[in-house]
Amino acid sequence: MAKFIDKSILTVPNLLSFYRIFSFPVVLYFALAKSESVYFILLLINLVTDVLDGFIARKFNLQSEFGARLDSFADIGMYILAFVGVICFKTKEIEPYMISSFIFLLFFVLPEIISFFKFRSFPSLHLYSSKIGGFIMGGFFFALFIVGFYPLFYYIMFVVGIVSFLEEIICVLVLSELKSNAKGLYWVLKDKRKLLLN
User: Fold this and answer.
1) 61-87 average pLDDT score
2) Secondary structure of 27-73 in the HEC alphabet?
3) Contact 129/159 with Cβ under 8 angstroms?
């Protein structure tokens, strides 16, 4: 059976992404079972593996199209788990901000929906703004569970997140074909201009 597995996909970064994907139902179970401490520890491990897979891929030149798409798929699962966790454990804290939270969630899924209808695939752009937004979202999430809700931190996360989602939406609309590791709108437009001039 092992001979049918392409060893080129079994890199450390990809294995870390596979871990996040396969751990999804386990983390979801503990969230729905209201086991906050276990849920939180497992999601913390997921966040650490998310940081590590990108670092290892860049450090040891293990980046690939498959890896980028796998990482994005794993990230979607982790964001879903974070949203579920907030609903299961922190509803009281987030309830006064429910409208803005739904707006945030809408902008989060819009790039995925637009990309699926346009390219029949989910994006793996890995924009710089998305990375910054992801770190801030992760910081807000863990601050929420460890020290509590801070409105200023929430609004910073909201604004940065919406800006990064908008950039991703524009990139998906501008691109003629889906690509990974696009960096940002500036680079997407720069590449498009080069193609038009050639």
Assistant:
1) 90
2) HHHHHHCCCHHHHHHHHHHHHHHHHHHHHHHHHCCCCCHHHHHHHHH
3) no
